[in-house]
Q: What sequence folds into this?
């Protein structure tokens, strides 16, 4: 593992994205329901206390109180789960829960029409999202039942002549492809940003980068040398050509962005830099700069692991021009991952990469941060991507 600098590299000279107006942010932050409400937590707490009181009263009257204690315990656990979800932001609403469950193989994937986080008929001001299966050759050892979520913007016509830039978004670990459409609220963000003129119409693709073998839930988007999946090859040689063949895409690096959050943010850095011939824009949100424990499981030797340590190669990897990197971290945090990110940002900026640095105020390393920073990543992508 790379030794992080004692303090973050000086990123003050790096450009920051323009602040999105509050009126737009209010629309972007909509779409939650009782699953992401503190009022639900309060209600669960009140019910739990009430059940305990009822159990005590029944016990004093010589009646059985333990069923009510059991119910109180279950309600308390439910309240704790709600609390964790409100903080982490992983499941903002019941529709997001359905998307997440489908991505984990539980239930059918819902067809989504966006504009709010509710199912409804499509229209001229809202895009749609569907889950598809992208087949992979058997020798890549990718799961055969995984889903890829695809958002198409309002007015998208598969028989039309308009071509659209594509933003690829990778989930974290543990995670699944639906995370960006559930916890990340990507389709809602795209609808609002298109409607308010902040981004051009774009396609968003969220693949499943889970695999098989020694590290199935933490592949780091790597080609395994320990018998696992060939995720890097799948993304570059299977997914991108498949999307270009099935959707009206701007099929060149100027029309593609590759992004992700958390370990997906690492994937965005490592895969994006190594395949900068495919992607002209990289969107790395809350990233790590090395492949971590997942990398040790995926790769047979320390030398192979070191080859994927972005800190080690950021100053030397061959890169085409132009190349844009959006990089966001929690504001005010001096963690190792933030120091790594700042170091990578300054190294790449020194080489002429157009680095845009965003510090997300009031956030920590959760899906709440990912949801807050995604609009800035999408705006940056839109400013640098060109339609066909």
A:
């Amino acid at each position: 593992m790379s030794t992080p600098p004692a303090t973050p590299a000086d990123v003050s000279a790096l450009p920051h994205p323009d602040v999105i107006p509050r009126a737009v942010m209010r629309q972007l932050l909509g779409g939650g329901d009782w699953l992401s409400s503190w009022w639900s937590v309060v209600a669960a707490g009140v019910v739990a206390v009430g059940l305990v009181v009822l159990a005590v009263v029944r016990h004093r009257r010589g009646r059985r109180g333990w069923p009510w204690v059991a119910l109180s315990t279950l309600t308390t656990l439910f309240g704790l789960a709600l609390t964790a979800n409100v903080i982490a932001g992983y499941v903002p609403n019941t529709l997001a829960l359905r998307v997440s469950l489908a991505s984990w193989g539980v239930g059918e994937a819902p067809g989504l029409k966006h504009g709010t986080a509710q199912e409804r008929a499509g229209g001229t001001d809202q895009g749609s999202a569907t889950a598809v299966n992208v087949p992979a050759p058997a020798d890549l050892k990718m799961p055969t039942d995984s889903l890829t979520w695809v958002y198409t913007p309002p007015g998208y016509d598969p028989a039309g002549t308009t071509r659209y830039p594509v933003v690829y978004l990778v989930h974290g670990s543990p995670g699944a492809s639906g995370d960006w459409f559930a916890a990340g609220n990507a389709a809602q963000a795209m609808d609002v940003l298109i409607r308010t003129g902040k981004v051009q119409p774009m396609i968003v693709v969220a693949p499943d980068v889970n695999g098989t073998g020694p590290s199935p839930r933490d592949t780091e988007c790597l080609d395994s040398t320990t018998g696992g999946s060939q995720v890097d090859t799948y993304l570059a040689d299977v997914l991108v050509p498949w999307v270009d063949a099935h959707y009206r895409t701007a099929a060149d690096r100027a029309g593609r962005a590759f992004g992700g959050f958390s370990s997906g943010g690492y994937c965005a850095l490592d895969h994006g830099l190594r395949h900068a011939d495919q992607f002209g824009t990289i969107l790395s949100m809350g990233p790590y700069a090395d492949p971590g424990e997942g990398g040790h499981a995926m790769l047979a030797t320390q030398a192979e692991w070191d080859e994927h340590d972005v800190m080690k190669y950021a100053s030397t990897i061959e890169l085409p021009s132009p190349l844009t990197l959006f990089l966001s971290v929690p504001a005010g945090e001096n963690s190792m991952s933030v120091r790594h990110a700042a170091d990578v940002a300054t190294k790449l900026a020194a080489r002429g990469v157009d680095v845009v640095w965003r510090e997300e105020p009031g956030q920590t390393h959760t899906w709440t941060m990912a949801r807050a920073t995604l609009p800035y990543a999408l705006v940056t992508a839109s400013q640098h991507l060109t339609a066909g």
Summary: The longest helix spans residues 38-60. Confidence is low (pLDDT under 50) at residues 111-122. Residues 40-84 form one domain. The beta strands are 112-113, 128-132, 148-152, 166-170, 203-206, 256-261, 281-285, 324-330, 354-360.
